[in-house]
Write a structure and sequence with these properties.
Its EC number is 2.7.4.9. The protein has 231 residues and is an alpha/beta fold. The protein contains 9 helices and 5 strands; from the N terminus they run βαβαααβααβααβα. α1 (42-55) packs across α9 and α3 (88-100) packs antiparallel against α5. The protein is globular. The two termini are 32 Å apart. The structure holds 3'-deoxy-3'-aminothymidine monophosphate and magnesium ion (MG). The site of 3'-deoxy-3'-aminothymidine monophosphate (NYM) has 10 residues, from α5.
């Protein structure tokens, strides 16, 4: 069962109102990230988890990276859709800056008791850039000091299961050969102290059920812990 402090009145919090929110007298929110290669269903699962939490009167907010709505996010979108080009190093730093842009807001929300369900984070940054050949330690360096998640859930799919899902989009990186390299990089980043790998090759509802259990457990265990920083 969740503790009373975690069950607070739900309201949707727009990113514009976060700076007016008082710091929570109770427990802080949990910072939970979903990671995985493209086509694993992260976005829909994240949104479903937020809906389920809100229905249970647990405050939660969805966030995603890249956040294409910021100025920096528009440059990233131009790159992903092949309208613009950057060096591998340059685009890596833009993805990182896109996270730094939202750090104050995320810290404020977490301290106010809002649980963040985040669709990709620094691990995507390092996995995708290092899969292109950039040095992994170089990729991690500018991420250092960002908030560290309480839980990273890695949604896994075998190459066969990924192929069965068919149809990658047209964006950069959306080809099977590259995704295979990304999966290997996730394997190198995985830290069992706060990562859980979950097989996504099940029905959508079955995956949601497993994820929801993990999310509730993380919320229950993170509320009294200080926020930490990455790497
Ligand atoms: N991606 C995402 C990166 O290369 N670096 C990052 O830091 C992040 C957050 O962007 N193929 C890549 C992974 C995806 C692409 O993400 C777009 P999405 O979740 O499909 O919008
Ligand atoms: Mg995608």
């Amino acid at each position: 069962m969740l503790s009373a402090q975690v069950r607070q009145n739900t309201r949707t919090i727009s990113s514009r109102t976060f700076d007016k929110m008082p710091e929570s007298q109770g427990k802080r929110g949990a910072f939970i990230v979903l990671e995985g290669c493209d086509r694993t269903g992260k976005t829909t699962q994240c949104k479903t988890l937020v809906d389920k939490l809100m229905q249970a009167n647990i405050r939660a907010q969805y966030m995603n990276f890249p956040d294409r709505s910021t100025q920096c996010g528009q440059l990233i979108n131009g790159y992903l859709t092949r309208k613009d080009d950057f060096t591998d190093e340059g685009i890596h730093l833009l993805f990182t800056l896109n996270r730094w842009e939202r750090m104050k807001e995320m810290e404020k929300l977490l301290k106010a008791g809002v649980n963040l369900i985040v669709d990709r984070y620094s691990y995507s940054g390092v996995a995708f850039s290092s899969a292109k050949g950039l040095d992994m330690e170089w990729c991690k360096a500018p991420e250092s000091g960002l908030l560290k998640p309480d839980l990273v859930i890695l949604l896994t799919l075998s190459m066969e299961a990924l192929a069965r899902r068919g149809g990658f989009g047209d964006e950069r990186y959306e080809v099977a050969g590259f995704q295979k390299k990304v999966i290997e990089r996730y394997g190198m980043l995985k830290d069992d102290r706060y990562w859980k790998a979950i097989d996504a090759d099940k029905t959508f509802d079955d995956v949601t059920a497993v994820l929801y259990e993990e999310v509730l457990r993380a919320i229950e265990h993170s509320g009294d812990k200080p926020l930490e920083k990455l790497w």
